[in-house]
């Protein structure tokens, strides 16, 4: 007997059956089967597994029975038991003993009867529904475990508090019912009742009720006296007066939204009212109307779920919202069914047994307090969520959880976890697989099916601002959008078929509502981390693919080298080769000729060492020809972009590049032209020394040319160093640090915008650009003027030399060197030539004047410009204040700006 | 080894005594043998709620049996 060997439970049960009934094994077969069934169906206990609580209850029970000495003895024995380590489930044994205990001062037979009946009914009832046991543990929202010391009714989710409620509410009453059944005396009857209540409650509800009774509202203490107060009225039913029992029955129907006999829906006022014809005392009428509010609330919630649950367009989020409401209603119905069965039991017992434990309106009022609060919350939620769907709905629910009331928070949190589950599922599908299965447009990422793949990155996906749940920040939403977009971009544009699992190794798309709840409780931590991880991995992978397979960075550099004239030797050589072609009218240019020249230039310069992939894309493009254009005006380099890199180099970008190229090309051409001018001056200087009459004109030419050279040099310096290189450096740094494609695109856009505005190509500096163009035009004009000058001068020189030669030749032949006639003719010609010189001078003077006035205007504009680098450019252009001395406006504005700057300092 | 088993046996016996005493205090009506069976069942993780229900039911059954027997006698 002493050894606790491990026999199977069935064997033990059988011997127990034999032992208790005192029969042989064959005779107890029936009872044994019953026992096995009961034990098997109630495997998990519904009560707290806490030894301390059970022992406390035993002590309390003994004290209730006025057996203080025994209670002390029990504590002693319990302590002794605790020192032994033989038993593993001490609480279980103690609990068994406690539930088998009987008050010695009371006839045991009936108690045994009913005790058996209800003890068996209680757990079975408890297990017929999955929520009793599973919910409190699985829904560990606020607290990890329902451990002892924590009050269950406060800590767990909203549902569980209701579940507990149904447990501790009506179920103990059957037990109390029988306690008072054969009242020996008033004192004897109430006392065991109290004691039974006291222990029935804490076991079922929560440990806290034993430790701190006031925290559990549904304690059955208060209703007892109130029930007594009501009872006299109940017993002595006045003639027309409705009995309270009938009212209770009515109220129970009204709870489900069904009209009762006396309490009916008032269509006008839209509320439940006690029939005014019924004779009722005021307090009962008030109480029943207060209770009837539950019916109204129930109807409201019910109507919403009924209307919406069949509405397919309401979407998944809406459906899960309805489901969660339904769940709440189910809990509520469960409570009602328990109340009904209680009523049933009362009916079976007959009216005579209506004692303290029976259902009364007041008791209902107390019991229904919590459900009422919950229903109220639900009704408010339903009101608030009317007409919302998807993420908006989730936001609405989320907003409701911020009242500060922990119970309400738990309820809303539970609903929210269900509601947000579909959203989180969307989210995981999206960030791990890039798939968007959002039939009802509930997710906050929207996709436009009309957008082609070439604009996929820019236009296809967008954020639906209204659908972003309020618990997801804008930043997170943007990242989520980016992650899925990157995956889709990889698949559809880059044709990269890497399985998503490889991109983000920690993918775990299958998430249950429980996970959703966990995530919601830890939005800053785990959720953020998940999104960040996916974001970093995906973006990094995308950039890798773009750089590795599509040479994004190389293309970027190629843009700078070719379209922004970074590759100096190539550009110079190209210009050399193109010069004869471009001098012709634009209409006579042919693309294929130019393409050939381009290829020659590539082959002859360092450009040939570039990647073939890049050179392949380089091409010539002729702009639209307007009458009078020369080749210079329409020629342009082009760079073909397609595929993934076209996402960075969009059509607009290429348009910008084209404009910048044209500007730079023009500036470059000025430099080239001035070089030619200088070359001409140097070459001809010696030859023309023999014509002293030209020296003045040539001097003028030199002065003007060097003025222009200075200007163009400063311009080139500005463009190269202050515009291109600075911006490029910025761009390159940003690109190197970029975390996702959007960063690169943004940096590139900023780069282009900066260049456009600094190159005076934007709308604000149109007047500056016009001045600059005019200056360029003057340079071209000067070139042609000087060319004409040199041509006529050289022609004249050749003629003079010819004349001299002829003279010498004749003298050698022994004739007269010149005849008078010839000399006269020669002199006439010389005279004619000399006559043209003042014309040239004046032409040059006009040119100089024009040029200078334009430059002065340009400087004035520069001075007033808001851009600092442009103001510095003006200082450099006019470093010796040459123009300032001539232009009063410049002086004023220079002084003014300097004064302003000084005052600023 | 033997002494350890002996000590264990002693501990078990002591425990059972204490439990029997508690049972008596609480007036459960269990004798030593049924108590030991119950303890063993509890140790195997049986739900005590269910077990107490079974015991009560068994008692009721045997009582009614006795009553009917008495009547027939």
From TrEMBL, chain A:
GO terms for biological process: cytoplasmic microtubule organization; meiotic cell cycle; microtubule nucleation; mitotic cell cycle; neural retina development; spindle assembly. Residues 248-546 form the Gamma tubulin complex component protein N-terminal domain. Residues 207-219 have a biased composition (Low complexity). GO terms for molecular function: gamma-tubulin binding; microtubule minus-end binding. It is found in: Cytoplasm, Cytoskeleton, Microtubule organizing center, Centrosome. InterPro entries: GCP (IPR007259), GCP_C (IPR040457), GCP_C_sf (IPR042241), GCP_N (IPR041470). Pfam families: GCP_C_terminal (PF04130), GCP_N_terminal (PF17681). This is Tubulin gamma complex component 3. It comes from Kryptolebias marmoratus.
Automatic annotation (TrEMBL), chain B:
GO terms for cellular component: centrosome; gamma-tubulin ring complex; interphase microtubule organizing center; spindle. Signal peptide: none annotated. Pfam families: MOZART1. Coiled coil: none annotated. InterPro entries: MZT1. Its main location: cytoplasm. One of its GO terms (biological process) is mitotic spindle assembly. Keywords: Cytoplasm, Cytoskeleton. It is found in: Cytoplasm, Cytoskeleton, Microtubule organizing center. Belongs to the MOZART1 family. PANTHER family: MITOTIC-SPINDLE ORGANIZING PROTEIN 1. This is Mitotic-spindle organizing protein 1. It comes from Oryzias melastigma (Marine medaka).
């Amino acid at each position: 007997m002493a050894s606790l060997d491990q026999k199977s439970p069935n064997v033990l049960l059988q011997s127990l059956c034999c032992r208790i009934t005192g029969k042989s094994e064959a005779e107890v077969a029936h009872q044994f089967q019953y026992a096995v069934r009961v034990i098997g169906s109630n495997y998990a206990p519904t009560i707290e597994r806490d030894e301390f609580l059970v022992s406390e209850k035993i002590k309390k029970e003994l004290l209730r029975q006025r057996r203080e000495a025994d209670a002390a003895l029990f504590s002693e024995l319990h302590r002794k038991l605790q020192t032994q380590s033989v038993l593993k489930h001490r609480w279980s044994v103690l609990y068994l003993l406690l539930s088998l205990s009987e008050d010695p001062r009371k006839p045991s037979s009936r108690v045994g009867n009913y005790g058996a009946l209800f003890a068996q009914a209680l757990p079975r009832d408890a297990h017929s529904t999955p929520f009793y046991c599973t919910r409190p543990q699985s829904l560990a929202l606020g607290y990890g475990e329902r451990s002892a010391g924590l009050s269950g009714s406060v800590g767990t989710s909203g549902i569980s508090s209701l579940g507990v409620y149904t447990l501790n509410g009506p179920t103990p009453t059957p037990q109390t019912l029988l306690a008072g059944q054969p009242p020996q005396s008033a004192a004897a009857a109430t006392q065991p009742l109290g004691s039974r209540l006291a222990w029935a409650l804490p076991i079922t509800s929560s440990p806290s009720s034993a430790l701190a009774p006031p925290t559990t509202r549904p304690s059955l203490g208060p209703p007892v006296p109130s029930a007594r107060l009501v009872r006299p009225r109940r017993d002595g039913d006045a003639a027309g007066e409705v009995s309270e029992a009938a009212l209770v029955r009515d109220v129970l129907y009204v709870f489900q939204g069904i009209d009762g006999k006396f309490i009916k829906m008032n269509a006008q006022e839209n509320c439940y009212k006690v029939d005014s014809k019924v004779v009722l005392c005021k307090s009962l009428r008030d109480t029943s109307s207060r209770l009837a509010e539950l019916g109204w609330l129930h109807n409201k919630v019910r109507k919403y779920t009924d209307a919406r649950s069949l509405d397919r367009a309401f979407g998944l989020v809406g459906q899960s919202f309805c489901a969660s409401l339904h769940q709440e209603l189910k809990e509520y119905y469960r409570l009602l069914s328990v109340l009904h069965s209680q009523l049933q039991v009362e009916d079976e017992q007959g009216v005579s047994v209506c004692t303290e434990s029976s259902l009364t309106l007041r008791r209902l009022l107390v019991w229904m307090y919590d459900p009422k609060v919950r229903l109220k919350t639900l009704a408010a939620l339903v009101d608030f969520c009317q007409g919302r769907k998807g993420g908006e709905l989730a936001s609405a629910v989320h907003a409701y959880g911020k009242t500060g009331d922990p119970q309400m928070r738990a309820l809303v949190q539970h609903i929210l976890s269900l509601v947000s589950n579909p959203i989180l599922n969307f989210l995981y599908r999206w960030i791990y697989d890039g798939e968007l299965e959002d039939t009802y447009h509930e997710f906050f990422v929207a996709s436009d099916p009309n957008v082609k793949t070439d604009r996929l990155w820019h236009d296809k996906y967008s954020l639906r601002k209204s659908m972003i749940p309020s618990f997801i920040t804008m930043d997170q939403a943007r990242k989520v959008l980016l992650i899925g977009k990157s995956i889709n971009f990889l698949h559809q544009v880059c044709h990269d078929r890497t399985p998503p699992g490889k991109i983000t190794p920690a993918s775990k798309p299958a998430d249950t509502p429980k996970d959703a709840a966990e995530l919601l409780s830890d939005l800053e931590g785990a959720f953020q981390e998940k999104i960040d991880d996916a974001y970093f991995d995906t973006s990094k992978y995308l950039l890798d693919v773009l750089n590795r397979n599509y040479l994004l960075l190389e293309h970027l550099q190629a843009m700078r080298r070719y379209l922004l004239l970074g590759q100096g030797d190539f550009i110079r050589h190209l210009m050399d080769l193109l010069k004869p072609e471009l001098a012709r009218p634009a209409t006579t240019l042919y693309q294929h000729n130019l393409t050939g020249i381009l290829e020659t230039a590539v082959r002859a310069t360092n450009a040939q060492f570039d990647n073939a992939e890049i050179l392949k894309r380089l091409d010539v493009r002729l702009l639209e020809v307007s009458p009078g254009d020369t080749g210079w005006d329409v020629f342009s380099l082009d760079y073909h972009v397609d595929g993934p890199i076209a996402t960075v180099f969009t059509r607009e970008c290429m348009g910008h590049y084209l404009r910048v190229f044209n500007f730079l090309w023009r500036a470059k051409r000025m430099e080239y032209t001035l070089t030619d001018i200088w070359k001409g001056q140097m070459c001809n200087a010696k030859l023309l020394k023999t014509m002293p009459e030209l020296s003045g004109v040539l001097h003028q030419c030199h002065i003007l040319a060097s003025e222009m050279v200075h200007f163009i040099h400063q311009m080139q310096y500005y463009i190269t160093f202050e515009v291109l290189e600075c911006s490029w450096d910025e761009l390159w740094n940003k690109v190197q640090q970029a975390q996702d494609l959007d960063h690169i695109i943004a940096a590139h856009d900023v780069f282009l915008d900066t260049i456009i505005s600094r190159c005076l190509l934007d709308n604000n500096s149109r007047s500056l650009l016009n001045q600059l163009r005019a200056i360029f035009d003057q340079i071209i004009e000067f070139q042609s003027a000087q060319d004409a000058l040199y041509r006529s001068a050289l022609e004249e020189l050749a003629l003079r030399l010819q004349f001299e030669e002829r003279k010498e030749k004749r003298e050698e032949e022994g004739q007269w060197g010149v005849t008078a006639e010839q000399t006269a003719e020669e002199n006439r010609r010389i005279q004619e030539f000399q006559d043209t010189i003042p014309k040239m001078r004046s032409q040059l003077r006009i040119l100089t004047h024009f040029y200078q006035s334009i430059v002065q205007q340009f400087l004035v504009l520069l001075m007033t410009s808001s851009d600092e680098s442009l103001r510095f450019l003006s200082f450099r252009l006019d470093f010796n204040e040459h123009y300032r001395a001539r232009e009063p406006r410049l002086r004023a504005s220079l002084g003014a700006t300097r004064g302003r700057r000084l005052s600023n300092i | 080894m033997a002494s350890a088993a002996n000590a264990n046996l002693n501990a078990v016996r002591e425990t059972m005594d204490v439990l029997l005493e508690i049972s008596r205090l609480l007036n459960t009506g269990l004798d030593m043998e049924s108590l030991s069976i119950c303890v063993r069942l509890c140790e195997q993780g049986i739900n005590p709620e269910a077990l107490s229900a079974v015991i009560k039911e068994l008692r009721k059954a045997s009582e009614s049996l006795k009553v009917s027997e008495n009547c027939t006698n």
